[in-house]
Write a structure and sequence with these properties.
Layout (H helix, E strand, L loop, with lengths): L4 H6 L4 E5 L6 H12 L2 E4 H15 L6 H7 L5 E5 L5 E5 L2 E2 L7 H10 L3 H17 L2 E5 L2 H5 L5 E6 L2 H15 L5 H17 L12 E4 L5 H16 L2
Parallel strand pairs: 1-6, 1-7, 2-6, 7-8
Antiparallel strand pairs: 3-4, 4-5
Length: 235
């Protein structure tokens, strides 16, 4: 039974934080897990990708913190779920769901997300969703910064070679192929950027469960995540 907003906020909601490096399968797994549990799925990476895409579209250097911050007042970012059940992102009224997944936008997203002004701008938006709904939220600092009191925290990872191969296959399926060597190089660069940024660097929360999926397929990975969630929420 769907509860109204007032009823939901009066109850203690459950929040699942899934963090990890690029290409670990966070979004795909979080989306599937949220559907199984009947929770709201929030792809925070897509929100940062939308800002990265805005910088890309306007020719703004994503590493320039002042320029990135100056963009924010001009941006109207929307998140909604379409009839396909997928999270769609809009930028100033235009659906940019497909555009933000282009390979070059990954590095733009990584760069803009390093700026404190950008992270502060989006923080309350993410926390409000968790206050009002049971959520599965994935990103790089959900368990450490966005939702430090999350009910369950999982740090999802895999070897960089495996993550690059997964992304390589994904790009092929989307019809935007890149060489494996280029994907691997960009993956390593993003890992470095995300873990060395001054604002909310990628790291495992002290109370997060580490799950390495290098040797696991999708079904095994999903079962492992659900098992962790059920164990932690039944305590």
């Amino acid at each position: 039974m769907r509860r109204n907003k007032k009823e939901r906020t009066a109850l203690k909601t459950i929040s699942i934080a899934i963090d990890g490096p690029s290409g670990a399968g966070k979004s795909t797994l979080a989306k599937s897990v949220s559907k199984t549990l009947g929770y709201l799925y929030v792809d925070t990476g897509a929100i940062y990708r939308t800002i990265g895409y805005a910088a890309f579209s306007k020719g703004v250097d994503p590493k320039d913190g002042e320029a990135a911050a100056a963009l924010l007042p001009e941006l109207e970012i929307g998140l909604h779920y379409g009839e396909d059940g997928l999270q769609h992102m809009t930028l100033n009224g235009a659906d940019v769901t497909d555009q933000i997944r282009l390979p070059e936008i990954s590095l733009y997203a990584s760069a803009v997300s390093a700026h404190p002004a950008v992270r502060a701008h989006l923080l309350e938006m993410q926390r409000k969703l968790a206050r009002e709904n049971n959520v599965v939220m994935d990103g790089r600092d959900i368990g450490t910064v966005v939702l430090p009191d999350a009910t369950v925290k999982i740090f999802l990872t895999a070897s960089v070679e495996e993550r690059a191969m997964r992304r390589f296959r994904e790009l092929e399926q989307r019809g935007t192929p890149e060489s494996y060597e280029k994907v691997l190089e960009e993956m390593r660069q993003r890992d470095y950027n995300d873990s060395h940024r001054a604002a909310a660097p990628l790291k495992q929360a002290e109370d997060a469960v580490l799950l390495d999926t290098t040797e696991l397929d999708f079904r095994q990975s999903e079962e492992a995540i659900l098992r962790i969630i059920r164990e932690r929420t039944s305590r």
